[in-house]
UniProtKB/TrEMBL annotation:
Matches recorded under Pfam families: BPD_transp_2
Cellular localization per UniProt: Cell membrane
InterPro entries: ABC_transp_permease (IPR001851)
Location (main, coarse): membrane
Gene Ontology molecular function: transmembrane transporter activity
Membrane topology: Multi-pass membrane protein
Keywords for the protein's UniProt record, in alphabetical order: Cell membrane, Membrane, Transmembrane, Transmembrane helix
Transmembrane segments: 12-31, 43-61, 68-89, 95-115, 127-146, 200-221, 249-268, 274-295, 307-325, 331-350
Protein's UniProt keywords contain Chaperone: no
This protein's name: Branched-chain amino acid ABC transporter, permease protein
GO CC term (a single one): plasma membrane
Length: 358
């Protein structure tokens, strides 16, 4: 009976996905895939995506639903990173200034985004999807017109307009000696306090930064504004009767989500090694939403444990599936499985909009 209650609390869907992930780890050596590399890749991708997934929590808690407009925050992070490079900031100062610029951009664009969502209460997720696509397309034009001049960032043949990918190796990364003695380039946050366990590199810096932002989000929801935000998401009628300004609370949650997403993409970029522009922000929408839903969140309740569990499970599946399947069967169905997992979990969660742990 106790095991049954534990299964119900964790959720059948998450149990199946967790078992599948364990099976992939077990099958990896038989498919010729290094188990050490598998663990290292999963840990690295968890660090890269965790803050992005965390950014969804404020909007979910305020009743704005899943943030399908996360590309707005991603674009703000891109602008912050490019601006930091434009001014020549390097090292940890470069990363810090990129985050500062990103947050400033996110306050401006997040305010516009929040104003739009307050005008269409009840259809936030539908409209957010269109806003994300529209804003990304608009920025594809803006990237060609913005007055950036750094040769690293601009198109070489014209001297104006930003590149498709901007390398950050000389700004946010540093060369280190790998396990095999060869030189490798690693992001400064990924490198910070990192160490090896049994040949597996553990990027402590990214974990610590995620823990810091998770603590900030947790602390925020202990404040008066955070409590009001939770009340608005749980029961807007009760919140209105209590004198809470629903529009203001939702407005704050959208700006907060956008700001956290802008920082999250910078963490991703310093690990990946490039700032990706133009249509790239759209790739993060369903990955982050699916990860949060796999963790057990619904469209009106999300917590930090949901972020941790979901990000680890989702990134584990996405990372291991292609390598194990390709090694075992010499075929590539990774994209098919990614679509099934991503959209299937979103569909599962949306059909249980008020049942968080089902």
């Amino acid at each position: 009976m106790k095991n049954k209650n534990l299964l119900q609390k964790f959720g059948l869907a998450r149990t199946i996905i967790a078992l599948f992930l364990i099976a992939l780890f077990i099958a990896a050596p038989f498919a010729g895939v290094s188990i050490k590399d598998s663990f290292e890749n999963v840990l690295s991708r968890f660090g890269m995506f965790s803050i992005l997934v965390l950014s969804l929590v404020p909007m979910v808690q305020s009743g704005c639903g899943l943030n399908f407009g996360i590309p707005i925050g991603v674009v703000c992070g891109i602008l912050g990173g490019v601006t930091s490079i434009e001014f020549g900031y390097v090292g940890y100062m470069g990363l810090f200034m990129a985050m500062v610029f990103a947050i400033l951009f996110s306050i401006f664009f997040g305010a516009i985004y929040g104003y739009v969502l307050n005008k269409i209460m009840g259809d936030e997720m539908l409209i957010a999807t269109y806003v994300g696509y529209s804003f990304t397309s608009f920025m594809c034009i803006a990237y060609l017109l913005l007055p950036y001049k750094n040769p690293v960032s601009v198109l070489s043949y014209g001297g104006t307009g930003l590149r498709q990918q901007i390398p950050v190796a000389n700004y946010w990364m540093k060369q280190v000696i790998g396990n095999s003695g060869n030189k490798m380039t690693m992001g400064l946050i990924s490198k910070f306090l990192s160490f090896n366990i049994g040949g597996v590199h553990v990027p402590i810096g990214m974990f610590l930064l995620f823990a810091f932002f998770a603590f900030l989000v947790w602390s925020f929801f202990k404040t008066k504004t955070g409590t009001a935000m939770t009340a608005v998401g749980s029961n807007p009628e009760y919140a209105k009767a209590s004198g809470i300004n629903i529009s203001r609370v939702r407005f704050v949650s959208v700006i907060l989500s956008t700001a956290i997403a802008s920082v999250g993409i910078i963490v991703y970029q310093q690990s990946y090694g490039f700032i990706q522009l133009y249509q790239a922000p759209l790739a993060f929408t369903f990955q982050t939403v699916a990860a949060l839903l796999i963790g057990g969140a619904s469209i009106n309740k999300a917590t930090i444990p949901h972020v941790i569990i979901g990000t680890f499970l989702f990134q584990g599946i996405i990372t291991l599936t292609p390598t194990v399947i390709n090694g075992a069967f010499n075929i590539d169905i990774s994209e098919i499985l990614r679509i099934i997992v991503t959209n299937g979990m979103i569909l599962y969660a949306l059909t249980r909009r008020n049942k968080v742990n089902e």
